[in-house]
Amino acid sequence: MATVTESSTGVSFPEQQTFWKNGMLTCVGVGPRIKKIGFVSIKAYAVCQYIDVKAAAAALAKPGCEAAAQALLQGGAFTQVLQMQLVRDVTGKQFSDTLDEVMRPLMKGNEADLDTFCAYLSAQPLSHGTQITFMRHADGSVDVALQPGLTIAGRRLGDTLWTLFLSHDGPTPEARKAWLAAVAKLGA
Question: Which InterPro entries does the record cross-reference, listed alphabetically (predicted)?
């Protein structure tokens, strides 16, 4: 099976993968989450985005345009997955507190979904090697895969999660760059 490896963490993701409710999705890029604390850079996780390439190519308004690729990834009506693999031990509370801090200002309503999401993650043991999968369906609902999993039906949480990871100052700039470049090439 072909893989895509994030170079700074050494984490590999399958180039294509079938997730629990959908057909084959394709990796459009990987990147690390590196948190800077003072002068120290700490690797937290590697992240990969998978998309339904055929649906994305059909929906891409302007092939070759990074802005169109970003708009498509932020609001595309097709299945998308963000899959993270932790490269250090962290408590569920630490992980959820970090997401809560950056996502709450972006939520713009229905923060109850974010509260449910963060409460779920807070209760999880998250150790080195743990994979966390966020699947965003065409209807905007988000499945969170750890065992047991969680589904949040509201669209706002998925919109916010993808907005965060696709923002210029988001947590994984290398991954964002790879995703936009790959999606911009669709249909070209």
Answer: Chalcone_isomerase_3-sand, Chalcone_isomerase_sf
Under DSSP, is residue 131 helix (H, G, I), strand (E, B) or coil? Answer: strand
pLDDT tens per residue across span 96-123: 999 999 999 998 777 899 999 999 999 9
d(CA 2, CA 110): 40
Cβ neighbours, 10 Å, residue 121: 23
| Residue 178 DSSP SS3 | helix
Q: Which two tokens stand for residue 18?
A: 């079938």
Number of C-beta neighbours around residue 125 at 10 A: 10
* Enclosing H/E stretch for 86: strand 80-86
Taking the C-alpha atoms of residue 112 and residue 121, their distance in angstroms, rounded to an integer, is 14
The Cα–Cα gap between 3 and 24 comes to 14
Give me the domains of the chain, ranges plus CATH numbers: 3-184 (3.50.70.10)
Query: What is the pLDDT of the chain when averaged over all its residues?
Result: 90
Do 130 and 86 form a contact (C-beta atoms < 8 A)?
yes
Alpha helices in the chain (DSSP H): 53-59, 66-75, 92-107, 111-122, 155-166, 173-184
